[in-house]
Every structure is written in C-alpha cells, then in structure tokens.
Amino acid sequence: MMKLIIADDQELLRESLKIVLSMDPEIEIIATCPDGKAVLDVMKREVADVILMDIRMPVMDGVYCTKLVKTDWPQTKVIILTTFDDDDFVFSALKYGASGYLLKGVGMDELIHAIKTVHSGGALINPNIASKVVSFFSEMGTPERFITVDESGKKEITATEWKVVSLIGLGLSNKEIASKLFLSEGTVRNYLSSILAKLMLRDRTQLAIWAVQSGVVHPEDIQ
User: Fold this and answer.
1) Residue 204 gets which letter from DSSP?
2) Angle subtended at Cα 60 by Cα 86 and Cα 140, rounded to the nearest 5 degrees
3) Can you tell me the distance from the alpha carbon of 26 to that of 50, in angstroms, rounded to the nearest whole number?
4) pLDDT by residue (tens digit) across 83-140?
5) Sheet harboring 124-125: ordered strands across?
6) Are residues 166 and 216 in contact, defined by beta-carbon separation less than 8 angstroms?
7) Angle at CA 120, nearest 5°, toward 209 and 24?
C-alpha cells in the first residue's frame, strides 16, 4: 500500500481527507500533521511515499518543509494542496521538488488520481497553476534559470510530437490533447514518454516550462 501523510493546519480538513482517502484500498494514511515540523518528525519514524502538503502552516510552512523532505528523502513525492495560487509559492514549491500543485477546490476523484499519478512517477499541476508557472518562467530573463534540452534529441521530435509539446505548454491534460488530436489517451502518454526521453527532461512540468521558454507557445496563448 501507498503510505501517505496529510499536512494541513485545519484539523477539520485533515480529518475529512483522512476519512475519505482511507477508503481507497491502495492508500494507507500513516499520519496527519498540523505543520511542517510535525511532518519531519513523522518522516524520521516512518517514511511516506506521498505527502499532501498545505503551504501556509504555523511553525514550518509547506514550501520549506518540501525542501527539507526532498533533501533527506528524495524518493518521497510531495503534492502541494492549497487555497493559494500566489506565483512565488508556485515557483518555490516546484523549485524545491514538489511533483504536484493543486488547489483545494479540486474534486476528490481528481485528488486521488493525482496522488496515484505522482506516486507512480508522474507530475500533476492544476491547469490554472500550470498557466502561472509557464508564464512566470517565460518572464525570467536570467539564462541560468532556463531549462535546457538535448539538442540532438530535439531534432528527432516528430510533427505530431511537436503538437503534443505545444498543447502541454498550454496546460492541457492528456485527455484534452487526445481529443484535440483525435488520439487515444494511451497514445498521448506514449508520445509524452518519447518526447521526455528525446529531450532528456524529467517530467511534464519541465516540458511545459521549456515549451514557453523556447517559443513553442507564448504566455498570451495560455487561457
């Protein structure tokens, strides 16, 4: 079973999430925590596979906790779950290694899907957040912060794969891309895996950011 920690300073939300998520046979809630320090205390006793992490918490916030978790337990995945979509929080959380960034208005089915996606090595970002991320990075003028790709691999990207890159840069999900390109979701996933391998990128988030930085899509195209 997947071991999960829920970190949020609102007790009612923590307990509600625990009740609902515990109903999934693949998920074991090993702890609920009111702040980042409590998360680290739990991790020293039992390492979680995934942490649902609020951002604004007392004692230690979710962004700094994410940084410490990924430093000491890099295999643990972190999903930021918050009501805040401030650009600085988005950038910092992803910079420190968060694999997902969702707003609390997300449906429970989507949240469970996100947890399982991230646990299996994927990344998931709320479409509104994705738009902010790619716009933010596209405005950053310092070259050392730009994402680079394998230039030889870039030459191997097919015409259809370029369409997929562009749509990912616009923040579309696999399902939405499949609909637009008249493909199955499985085919889109295969294209994505191929693209990431050719460009030597880590995940969908890096690809989306690179797509804007490189001019494949433009911030004004993002809805």
Assistant:
1) H
2) 35
3) 12
4) 866 656 777 777 788 888 888 888 899 899 999 999 988 877 777 677 666 666 555 5
5) 27-33, 2-7, 50-53, 77-82, 100-103, 124-125
6) yes
7) 120
